[in-house]
């Protein structure tokens, strides 16, 4: 309860200088439907909260797209939150399947992404699910290539975007054991990143995620001699998880994006209302598409 009270107090503060995206799916929908009674609620509870902009194969010239977004945030004296999501064999052929064709194309893409950030301050989440899904690759060479691409991404941000805080994705609290995840993160270049991110697009509570992060850090310290800060996606974890991952009913938005401490950052990485795929309580809404019905369910916890 003390932890929850701490988060409540943190929410009362300003949003720690993070950028509110006026072109997020919830914001665009609300402006396009001013007479819909849901619009005001979605604006107040979701669209006005700092959250991530995701970049992938839909983004066109990624350097231009990232530079435009980061530049607007910089002009507003705010820190943007960005997600790089275009690695080859993205989501292992699941609901968010896609990504660039091969490793060479990814190196070009992530280099362009990092140059788009440039010298601006930013928070960047690198490739959700990419380390946890290593098991979908059948050969050691395929797994090594995935880790090499993640190391390359970290190195490009360090070179081209030195003011960016880069977080490697680390799955969620009940996916991969902490010791295995620590090994994977280290192999993916974590030592040169700001930290690791948990619970992206999932529903586990912040307390569960913190416990897992502490175990990962213990394993990092034991195996490699260092620990790292971590970010937790709180966009939909207000009611915790019921074990389902794809648009489950009864979930709720969680603690707003805020710089709670030097070691733990609650941040809205998934955009509340964006579908996980054509499944669950949104059987006809494709992955990444905004649904006002999903958004209101998350506001109400229904």
From TrEMBL:
The active site is at 91, 129 (proton donor), 276 (proton acceptor). SUPFAM superfamilies: Glycosyl hydrolases family 6, cellulases. Keywords: Carbohydrate metabolism, Cellulose degradation, Disulfide bond, Glycosidase, Hydrolase, Polysaccharide degradation, Signal. It is an enzyme of class 3 (hydrolase). Substrate binds at residues 54, 175, 202, 245, 270. PROSITE patterns: GLYCOSYL_HYDROL_F6_1 (PS00655). The keyword Hydrolase applies. One of its GO terms (molecular function) is hydrolase activity, hydrolyzing O-glycosyl compounds. Its EC number is 3.2.1.-. GO terms for biological process: cellulose catabolic process. Belongs to the glycosyl hydrolase family 6. This is Glucanase. It comes from Caballeronia mineralivorans PML1(12).
């Amino acid at each position: 309860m003390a932890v929850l009270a701490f988060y409540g107090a943190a929410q009362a503060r300003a949003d720690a200088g993070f950028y509110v995206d006026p072109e997020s799916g919830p914001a665009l929908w609300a402006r396009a439907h001013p007479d819909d009674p849901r619009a005001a609620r979605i604006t107040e509870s979701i669209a006005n909260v700092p959250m991530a902009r995701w970049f992938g194969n839909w983004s066109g010239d990624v350097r231009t797209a990232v530079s435009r977004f980061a530049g607007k945030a910089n002009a507003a004296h705010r820190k943007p939150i960005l997600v790089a999501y275009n690695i080859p064999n993205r989501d292992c052929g699941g609901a968010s399947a896609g990504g660039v064709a091969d490793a060479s194309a990814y190196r070009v893409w992530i280099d362009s992404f990092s140059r788009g950030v440039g010298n601006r301050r930013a928070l960047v989440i690198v490739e959700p699910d990419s380390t946890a899904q290593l098991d979908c690759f059948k050969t050691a060479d395929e797994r090594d290539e995935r880790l090499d691409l993640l190391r390359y991404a970290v190195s490009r941000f360090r070179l081209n975007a030195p003011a960016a805080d880069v977080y490697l994705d680390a799955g969620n609290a009940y996916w991969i054991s902490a010791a295995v995840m620590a090994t994977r993160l280290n192999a993916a270049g974590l030592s040169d990143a700001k930290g690791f991110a948990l619970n992206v697009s999932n529903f586990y509570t912040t307390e569960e995620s913190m416990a897992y992060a502490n175990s990962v850090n213990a394993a990092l310290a034991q195996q490699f001699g260092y620990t790292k800060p971590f970010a937790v996606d709180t966009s939909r974890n207000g009611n915790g998880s019921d074990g389902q991952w794809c648009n489950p009913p009864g979930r709720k938005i969680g603690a707003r994006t805020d710089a709670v401490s030097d070691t733990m950052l609650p941040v809205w990485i998934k955009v509340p209302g964006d579908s996980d795929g054509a499944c669950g309580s949104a059987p006809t809404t494709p992955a990444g598409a905004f649904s006002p019905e999903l958004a209101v369910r998350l506001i109400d916890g229904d």
